[in-house]
Design goal:
single chain, Creatine Amidinohydrolase, Chain A, domain 1, binds manganese (II) ion
Length: 447
C-alpha cells in the first residue's frame, strides 16, 4: 500500500474514532468466503465498511478501534493501543493453495495500522471482562451475523459473553456512523469512482460497434466486462442487466441469455469497478442501429428528464426534489404524447426513483433520510449520485398503443456534487439519438 493510501485509511479511522468517542470501542469485521455450492466458493469480496477503514482485502480479518486506548499484550509487556488489526495466521500450506497472507507482523509496515495480531486472539477482546471498561461497543452487527468458516467460533464466543457485557455496555451497529462518513466522498475516493466511470465509458464505445441483430445478450455482457478490465477496471460493479425488448421491463433482469431481434431496443445497465469503487451507468440502444418513431419519442422524454435533473443538481438541493422533477418531466412527456390520461399514474410506467448514492457499494451504504434525525436528503459537496430516469411498457399494457409496448428505456449517469453545481462523471458517454445512430452506422464491426 502506498503512502497516499495509508494516509487515506488512517484519516478514515481517525474520523470514525472521533465520532464514537473515547468511552467507546469498535470492532469492525471483514468478510469471510461465501459458499456457492458443495466445496466451491464465490470469488471473495471484502466488506466495504471494513475496507473503508483499512484498504485490506484479506478474508477473516477484523479491526479494533479504541479511541481511549485498550491494553495490548506483547509477550510479557503491556502497552496501550488505539488500533489493532486482526489477520489470518501465516500458513505455508494454505498460502500454497489460496494465495499469500500478509501476516500480523507486516500489518504496520504494509497497511500503516498501529498494531497487528492473529485473528485467534480476537477472543480475548470479545470477552465480557475486557469490554467492561467501555460504555459502548460499535460493531458491524448485521454483517457479523453473516460470517462463516473460522470466524464463526470467534463470533459464538462473542454471543457467549453477551450476558456479561449486556448489563452495562450499549451495543450499536456501526453502519450508521460509517454511513454518515461515506455520504461525503473525499478527493481520493472521487478519483477512483471517476476511473471506474472512465473504464465504463470506453467499454460502451466499443460495444456500440458490436451490437447487431442475432447476437446474444450475453455477448454484450461479457464483451463489456472484457473492456472494463482492458481499460483499467478491476471488476464489475454489480451483476449486469443486458435486456433486449421486453426484458428491459424486468428491473433486475439477470438472465442475459436472449438473442437480439431487429426492431427491439437493448437496455444495458452494467458498469466497471475500480479498486472497490463503483460506477453505475445505463444506456439504451436500438438493436439494428435506428430508433423507431415510437422508441425515439419515449427515449427523448427520458433523456429530457435525465438532462434536466442533472442541470438542477447543486449543494443544498434536495434529492427528493430531483426525484419529483424527474417524475414530473416523465409525466408531462407521456401526457403530451397522449399516452397518459392522469399524470398521477406515472409511477406505473416509471417504476423506480431517480437515483441513489454510489461509492464503495453500487447502492452506497448511506443512511436513508428516514433514519435518525440527520439530513441525508439535502445534497452536499462530495456526494456522488446516479440520475437514472426510466420508462417501461410491457406487452400486457393494453392501454398503450402496441408499437410502444415491449419497451424499456433508462438513461443513467454518475454525478458528483461540487461546491457550486455538479460534474457529470459520465458526460462523455454517448446518449443523444443522432449520435447513437451515427456511431452504430459508422465504425460498426459486428462480432
Ligand atoms: Mn443505478
Amino acid at each position: 500500500m502506498n503512502k497516499e493510501e495509508k494516509s487515506f485509511y488512517l484519516s478514515r479511522r481517525k474520523e470514525f474514532s472521533k465520532l464514537i468517542g473515547k468511552d467507546s470501542i469498535a470492532l469492525i469485521f471483514g468478510n469471510t468466503h461465501r459458499n456457492k455450492s458443495y466445496d466451491g466458493d464465490y470469488k471473495f469480496k471484502q466488506y466495504k465498511n471494513f475496507y473503508y477503514l483499512t484498504g485490506f482485502e484479506e478474508a477473516n480479518s477484523a479491526l479494533l478501534l479504541a479511541p481511549g486506548g485498550v491494553r495490548l499484550k506483547t509477550g510479557s509487556k503491556v502497552k496501550t493501543a488505539t488500533e489493532v488489526l486482526f489477520v489470518q495466521k501465516k500458513d505455508t500450506l494454505m498460502e500454497t493453495w489460496n494465495g499469500k497472507r500478509l501476516g500480523f507482523e507486516n500489518v504496520t509496515d504494509g497497511l500503516g495500522i498501529q498494531n497487528g495480531r492473529e485473528n485467534t486472539e480476537l477472543n480475548y477482546y470479545l470477552n465480557g471482562k475486557m469490554l467492561s471498561s467501555f460504555r459502548r461497543l460499535y460493531i458491524n452487527f448485521a454483517e457479523m451475523l453473516k460470517l462463516s468458516g473460522e470466524m464463526e467460533n470467534i463470533i459464538s464466543m462473542f454471543f457467549d459473553s453477551m450476558n456479561r457485557i449486556a448489563p452495562h455496555i450499549e451495543i450499536i451497529d456501526a453502519s450508521y456512523v460509517l454511513g454518515t462518513m461515506r455520504f461525503i466522498k473525499t478527493p481520493f475516493e472521487i478519483i477512483k469512482i471517476s476511473n471506474a466511470a472512465d473504464a465504463s465509458i470506453k467499454a460502451y464505445n466499443e460495444i456500440l460497434k458490436i451490437i447487431q441483430p442475432g447476437i446474444n445478450e450475453f455477448n454484450v455482457q461479457f464483451i463489456l466486462e472484457f473492456y472494463y478490465r482492458y481499460y483499467g477496471g478491476n471488476d464489475i460493479a454489480y451483476h449486469p442487466i443486458v435486456a433486449a425488448g421486453e426484458n428491459a421491463c424486468i428491473l433486475h433482469y439477470e438472465n442475459n441469455d436472449q438473442h437480439l431481434v431487429p426492431g427491439d431496443l437493448l437496455l444495458i445497465d452494467s458498469a466497471s469497478e475500480f479498486k472497490y469503487y463503483c460506477s453505475d451507468v445505463t444506456r439504451t440502444f436500438p438493436v439494428d442501429g435506428v430508433f423507431t418513431t415510437e422508441q425515439k419519442l419515449i427515449y427523448e422524454i427520458v433523456l429530457k428528464a435525465n438532462k434536466e435533473c442533472i442541470k438542477n443538481i447543486r449543494p443544498g438541493v434536495k434529492f427528493s426534489y430531483i426525484n419529483n422533477l424527474s417524475q414530473k418531466i416523465l409525466a408531462d412527456g407521456l401526457y403530451k404524447a397522449g399516452l397518459l390520461k392522469d399524470k398521477k399514474d406515472i409511477k406505473k410506467y416509471s417504476l423506480h426513483g431517480v437515483g441513489h448514492h454510489i461509492g464503495l457499494d453500487t447502492h452506497d451504504a448511506v443512511p436513508s433520510s428516514a433514519a435518525g434525525s440527520a439530513d441525508f436528503d439535502t445534497l452536499r459537496e462530495g456526494n456522488v449520485i446516479t440520475i437514472e430516469p426510466g420508462l417501461y411498457f410491457t406487452k400486457d399494457m393494453k392501454e398503450i398503443p402496441e408499437k410502444f409496448r415491449g419497451t424499456g428505456i433508462r438513461i443513467e449517469d454518475d454525478i458528483l456534487v461540487t461546491g457550486n453545481g455538479c460534474l457529470n462523471l459520465t458526460e462523455n458517454m454517448i446518449k443523444e439519438v443522432d449520435e447513437i445512430e451515427e456511431a452504430m452506422r459508422e465504425n460498426h464491426t459486428g462480432l
